[in-house]
């Protein structure tokens, strides 16, 4: 019998300590931001009955869902490719009687069957859903929160893109030829004005005029709204523009310090998600990520699929994409740099344990090791190991002296038994204070 090859399924991966730490840190700082705006955490199951979950999925998400037979019940279940339908189900059932809007936030992994060699893909997400609130005020809160969430990132180059589905829906309204719709959508996504004109040549004049304008309707909000209002638009589209303009103004009032909101881009010709969303939609980008790291908008028809007529708006953030962008900058947080490996002889193990605890209380990561596992005459291996496990500082409790080591610097003496007046070792707290001072000077 041949030996089983150790492998992972296509599209999933392990995250080793540094990568895992970065992703957890990103998720937690985002969740703290969401909670500070009044959003409550919720946890949903990794898989659900396929027919229930698929009520809230579009055609692409249904195709991406990974299904299997649940052994105990024999039911077909599906790994969630999106968490938003699960929130919609809960809002329509278990939380339907809350007596007001629901502000919910979440984090978790979704699994999607992708095309090509990569196969299925596991994506770590965090996001918010604002259910039961409609109009510009609710959209403004979502937009302001999206900017605040992106402002927690260490990536300095960030941007926010806001749009509305009204003009795209109007431009494609009444076209029964599916191939023509596909061709127009493809050209509009590329902002290919010549291709749009070619595909729309047999359409009515007013529809051609709107389709011709869409690829150019992007830029700063003031000038883009002005260009859009020069078009001949029905009242419904004009009202949608008015509401979006109020949304942007009110979002800036809610988050006055956000540079993202002051410099956001308005794109009224963007088609991403226009079949799913019913109003405002938004995307956020950071340098180092190949696509949007935040996607969201208003979706007023989703919750009703689970039995409750309720408007909703929300967004999801791709933690993996954000983590990769941050790793490009090689920006490690303070907590990662501030760490010590404490190595102690048996006679000083109690004191070393107290020092490790004092360091942890001060926010310094500390791990305790027995000296018998290391060659204290040649600490090269111990120092190299400490660096590999992200504990750059090394404290050695030898039988005659205590020393502190930091990469590429001379060691510091903490205590020597034979020194006059130093017969008794210092206290754990005094050593902790000394180490904190040293660490502050070496970061």
What does this structure look like?
There is one protein chain. The protein has a nine-stranded mixed sheet, with helices on both faces. It is α+β, with helices and mostly antiparallel strands. The chain has helices at 17-36, 50-53, 59-64, 84-92, 135-150, 166-172, 178-190, 193-199, 205-213, 221-229, 235-254, 259-262, 319-328, 334-337, 349-361, 380-388, 428-442; strands at 40-41, 47-49, 66-69, 76-79, 102-113, 120-131, 158-164, 218-219, 265-267, 280-286, 294-298, 312-318, 339-344, 365-370, 393-397, 401-405, 412-416.
Quaternary state reads single chain
Number of helices: 17
Q: Could you give the count of β-strands?
A: 17
CATH class of the largest domain: Alpha Beta
**CATH fold call of the largest domain:** BirA Bifunctional Protein, domain 2
Record the strand order, biggest sheet: 1-5-6-12-11-10-7-9-8
Regions with little confidence, pLDDT below 50 for 5+ residues:
331-336
Per CATH, the architecture of the largest domain is: 2-Layer Sandwich
Through-space gap between termini: 54 Å
How many domains would you count in the coordinates?
Answer: 3
Mean pLDDT: 89
Helix % is 25-40%
Class by SSE composition: alpha+beta
Strand content: 15-25%
Largest sheet: 9 strands, mixed
The name of the CATH superfamily of the largest domain reads: Bira Bifunctional Protein, Domain 2
Cα-atom radius of gyration = 28 Å
Globally, the shape reads elongated
């Amino acid at each position: 019998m041949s030996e089983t090859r150790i492998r992972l399924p296509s599209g999933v991966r392990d995250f080793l300590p540094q990568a895992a730490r970065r992703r957890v840190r990103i998720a937690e700082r985002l969740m703290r931001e969401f909670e500070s705006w009044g959003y409550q955490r919720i946890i949903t199951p990794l898989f659900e009955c396929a027919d229930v979950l698929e009520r809230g999925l579009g055609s692409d998400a249904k195709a991406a869902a990974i299904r299997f037979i649940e052994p105990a019940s024999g039911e077909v279940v599906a790994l969630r490719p999106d968490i938003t339908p699960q929130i919609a189900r809960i809002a329509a059932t278990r939380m339907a009687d809350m007596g007001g809007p629901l502000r919910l936030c979440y984090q978790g992994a979704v699994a999607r069957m992708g095309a090509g060699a990569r196969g299925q893909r596991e994506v770590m997400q965090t996001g918010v859903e604002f259910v039961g609130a409609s109009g510009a005020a609710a959209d403004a809160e979502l937009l302001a929160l999206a900017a605040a969430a992106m402002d927690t990132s260490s990536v300095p180059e960030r941007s926010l893109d806001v749009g509305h589905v009204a003009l795209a829906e109007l431009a494609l309204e009444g076209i029964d030829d599916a191939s023509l719709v596909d061709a127009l959508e493809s050209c509009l996504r590329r902002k290919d004005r010549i291709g749009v004109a070619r595909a729309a040549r047999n359409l009515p004049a007013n529809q051609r005029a709107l389709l011709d304008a869409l690829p150019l309707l992007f830029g700063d909000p003031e000038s883009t709204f002005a260009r859009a209002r020069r078009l001949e638009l029905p009242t419904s589209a004009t009202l949608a523009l008015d509401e979006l303009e109020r949304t942007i103004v009110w979002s800036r009032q809610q988050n006055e310090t956000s540079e993202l909101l002051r410099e956001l881009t308005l794109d009224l010709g963007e088609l991403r998600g226009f079949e799913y969303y019913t109003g405002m939609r938004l995307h956020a980008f950071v340098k180092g990520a190949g696509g949007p790291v935040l996607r969201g908008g208003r979706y007023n028809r989703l919750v009703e699929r689970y039995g409750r007529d309720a408007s909703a708006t929300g967004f999801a953030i791709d933690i993996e994409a954000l983590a990769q962008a941050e790793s490009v900058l090689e920006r490690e947080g303070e907590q990662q740099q501030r760490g010590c490996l404490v190595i102690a002889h048996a006679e000083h193990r109690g004191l070393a344990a107290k020092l490790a605890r004092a360091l942890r209380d001060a926010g310094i990561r500390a791990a305790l090791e027995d000296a018998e596992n290391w060659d204290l005459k040649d600490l090269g291996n111990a120092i190299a190991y400490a660096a590999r496990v992200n504990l750059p500082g090394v404290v050695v409790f030898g039988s005659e002296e205590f020393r502190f080591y930091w990469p590429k610097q001379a060691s510091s003496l903490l205590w020597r038994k034979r020194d006059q007046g130093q017969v008794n070792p210092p206290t754990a707290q005094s050593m902790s204070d000394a180490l904190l001072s040293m660490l502050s000077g070496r970061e």
